[in-house]
Amino acid sequence: MSNNLTSGYHRDYQIFKGRIIDAILDAIECIKVFNYSINKIKVRKNILDDDKYKFIFSVENLNELVKNGKTFRDSYNQISKEIKNNAFKPNKTIKHTLIGGIHNLSLDQIELKMKENFKLWHEENNSNDRSEAKETNVKDGKTDELSDEGKKLVQEEIKKHLEKMHAKMEAVKEEAHKKVQAAESQVGRMETEYKQEVSKVRDGSGFVNSDKLKSQ
């Protein structure tokens, strides 16, 4: 839609807005589906014991031959012949040591890193919140920190405010979606009328004295 057009805010090109809103709504639906399906995933254990998956170990066998001194070409040809002659025997005892590899996922390190990052994030946010609260108290002539009851009230007000903002946002999105649908419907009707007019012009029915024009 923006072919040969300069980049910028699309107020000048209103046709973008409908597509963008639809894309956002689709993304939200995809996230909902993902959130639902991810909790339904079940791990099937020992699936590689099935013979139909044995050929995925061909690369492992080839790599072992290369590590033992054979050239890659010779190793490749050997494994290829074994598979063609139905003589291939997968080596499933190989253990990978590469971090992130199948036998060294390092999930504990990932979990630790996530916890550290979340901890830093919470500390920064709490520090900012405390600073803002202190500044507010000083401006109001209050130097003492908020009590537990005060914090609870503030959290409730914040929650109410966020709920109102979310409700307004949903209402705006719904209204915008309806307007986009109405605009697309209007464009469809106009296109149909345009095609009808073009058809009339082509067969002469749209002109005065069309029989005379047709005879000429």
Q: What is the gist of this entry?
A:
The protein is built from 6 helices and no strands. It has 216 residues and is mostly helical.
- Please report the total strand number as a whole number: 0
Query: For the terminal residues, how far apart are their CA atoms?
Result: 43 Å
Poorly predicted ranges (pLDDT <50, ≥5 residues)?
Answer: none
Find the structural class using helix and strand composition: mainly alpha
- Helical fraction: 55-70%
Rg:
34 Å
Question: Rough shape?
Answer: flat
> Which sheet architecture does the biggest sheet show?
none
What's the tally of helices?
6
Strand content: under 5%
Secondary-structure element series: HHHHHH
Mean pLDDT: 80
Protein model, in words:
The chain is an all-alpha fold and 216 residues long. Among the domains are: 38 residues, no CATH class; 47 residues. It is 66% helix and 0% strand. It starts with 14 loop residues before the first helix and ends with a helix.
Keywords:
216 residues; mainly alpha
Layout of strands and helices, then pairs:
Elements: H1 15-38, H2 58-67, H3 72-84, H4 107-139, H5 148-203, H6 210-215
Helix pairs in contact: 1-5, 2-3
